[in-house]
From TrEMBL:
Designated name of the protein: Uncharacterized protein
Stretches for region Disordered: 133-175
Keywords (A to Z) from UniProt: Membrane, Transmembrane, Transmembrane helix
Top-rank taxon, per record: Bacteria
Composition bias, Low complexity: 141-175
Keyword Transmembrane helix: yes
Keyword Membrane: yes
Protein species of origin: Actinoplanes regularis
Residue stretches spanning the membrane: 106-131
Length: 175
């Protein structure tokens, strides 16, 4: 850890300790040791190199005021009256760069696209299942295609209409 980073962590822990003055000494030491271990674990996991990254870890823990309030709430004890120095919020030392802004979260877009994809797949699957359950269409019989040429005349079977010439009436025959 760089000396400057050691100063940041030490200052943060000191501010928390000031706000925990109403807790028993052993409980206060245990909490501070847990905080220091947590900060060190986060630094190692993230391979923190800059002060900005360290400040981000400290900000995620919460201000010393928030950490102390949570400790008092967990202990079930009443919190002592805050002094002027205890009410001050934690700010990084002057000249320190502010932590970079957190990246925007676009998870809701991916969730919406996934939901739309699921709906499309379900619709296509339902259509395919319906088509397969009905089976292929059966061919129509030839009788379904035969329609009379003149709707007022009776239908003649197709074989009789094409095989013999039309009969001439007996009065039209010549001797």
């Amino acid at each position: 850890m760089k000396p400057n980073q050691t100063d940041l962590v030490g200052e943060y822990l000191h501010e928390v300790e000031l706000r925990l003055s109403g807790l028993p000494l052993l409980q206060r030491r245990e909490l501070l040791a847990d905080l220091a271990a947590h900060i060190e674990t986060e630094r190692a996991e993230r391979n923190v190199q800059s002060d900005g990254e360290l400040i981000e870890i400290l900000e995620r823990l919460g201000s010393p005021e928030v950490v102390a309030a949570a400790a008092y709430e967990e202990a079930g004890g009443a919190r002592p009256a805050a002094t002027a120095s205890a009410q001050a919020t934690y700010l990084p030392p002057p000249g320190m760069p502010a932590a970079p802004a957190a990246p925007k979260r676009y998870g809701w877009i991916f969730a919406a696209l996934a939901a739309v994809g699921v709906v499309v797949v379900l619709c296509l699957g339902g259509a395919l299942a319906t088509f397969r359950s009905e089976g292929p269409p059966e061919p129509a019989s030839p009788a379904e295609y035969a329609t009379p040429a003149d709707p007022t005349s009776p239908a003649t079977p197709p074989s009789a209409a094409h095989s013999a010439p039309p009969a001439t009436p007996p009065s039209a025959r010549t001797p």
